[in-house]
């Protein structure tokens, strides 16, 4: 595998980060069909003050598109479906949006666990009142969930937490999850572990080796589920985690995807050999 080790060394400042080559070797040593599940923000796209300004680099998009030729690639994200699809541009792939509340396979096959609720419109009204003194907050009503972002002023984290905890205590059908610079209220029965399980069931991937890459607390349910299924889990960045491996940042995710694709190409059975087992000319 021709990963540029010198470039990778330049982004690894501590020995507690894993090397892409070691992770790729582990994956391919298991000799199983694979499915790749990817978070978006903080994993494929750098954080921006305005979430709508985030983007996935062309380099990573190209890698994903090429990897799709070999196996299923799915996104598992807290973004709503429209926003997530926009991030991938012309690439069509399965998406678990809103932490798994909405499962998109293609334009003809979409599944939702809950119908759109007026509850979140009411919560938005309450949050607008509760945050009047803090213009740095951004409220995001996702129709099936609601988020309070404090990216513009991280010092407001404790106030954001108190506001959202108070709302959650008044609505026990919802649970509070913490992401990077955001608190979010979602339905109790929604998490990324269930999202990965649902996509795996719908696409008959249960016997595949699941690989999940994510970066924050909202991804931990996904890590736990994939670990339970004997898959491979990768945490991006700092913080306690259930993931087996850890990458430093998005640059290292890029290195991994590149090395992963190279190994896929090296081990792929040419299509003209798959049917007959040998070449016929």
UniProtKB/TrEMBL annotation:
It catalyses: alpha,alpha-trehalose 6-phosphate + H2O = alpha,alpha-trehalose + phosphate. GO terms for biological process: trehalose biosynthetic process. Pathway: Glycan biosynthesis; trehalose biosynthesis. Gene3D superfamilies: HAD superfamily/HAD-like, Trehalose-6-phosphate phosphatase related protein, domain 2. The keyword Cytoplasm does not apply. Keywords: Hydrolase, Magnesium, Metal-binding. One of its GO terms (molecular function) is trehalose-phosphatase activity. Transmembrane segments: none annotated. Its cofactor is Mg(2+). It comes from the Bacteria. Its EC number is 3.1.3.12. It holds the Pfam family Trehalose_PPase. NCBIfam families: HAD-SF-IIB, T6PP. PANTHER family: TREHALOSE 6-PHOSPHATE PHOSPHATASE. Belongs to the trehalose phosphatase family. Removes the phosphate from trehalose 6-phosphate to produce free trehalose. This is Trehalose 6-phosphate phosphatase.
């Amino acid at each position: 595998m021709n990963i540029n080790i010198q470039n990778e060394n330049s982004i690894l400042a501590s020995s507690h980060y894993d090397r892409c080559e070691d992770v790729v070797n582990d994956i391919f040593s298991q000799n199983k069909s694979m499915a790749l599940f990817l978070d978006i923000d903080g994993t494929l796209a750098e954080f921006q003050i305005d979430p709508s300004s985030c983007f996935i680099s062309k380099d990573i998009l190209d890698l994903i598109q090429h990897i799709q030729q070999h196996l299923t690639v799915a996104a598992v994200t807290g973004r709503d479906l429209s926003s997530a699809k926009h991030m991938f541009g012309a690439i069509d792939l399965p998406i678990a949006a809103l932490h798994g509340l909405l499962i998109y396979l293609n334009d003809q096959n979409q599944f939702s666990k809950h119908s759109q609720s007026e509850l979140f419109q009411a919560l938005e009204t309450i949050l607008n009142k509760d945050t009047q003194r803090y213009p740095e907050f951004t409220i995001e009503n996702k129709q099936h969930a609601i988020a309070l972002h404090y990216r513009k002023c991280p010092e407001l984290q404790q106030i954001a937490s108190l506001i959202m905890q108070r709302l959650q205590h008044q609505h026990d059908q919802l649970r509070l999850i913490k992401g990077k610079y955001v608190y979010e209220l979602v339905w109790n029965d929604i998490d990324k572990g269930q999202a990965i399980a649902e996509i795996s069931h719908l696409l008959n991937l249960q016997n595949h080796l699941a690989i999940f890459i994510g970066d924050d607390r909202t991804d931990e349910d996904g890590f736990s589920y994939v670990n339970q299924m004997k898959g491979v889990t990768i945490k991006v960045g700092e913080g306690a985690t259930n993931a087996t491996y850890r990458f430093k940042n998005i640059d290292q995710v890029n290195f991994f995807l590149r090395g992963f694709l190279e190994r896929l190409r090296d081990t792929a059975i040419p299509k003209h050999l798959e049917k007959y087992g040998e070449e016929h000319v």
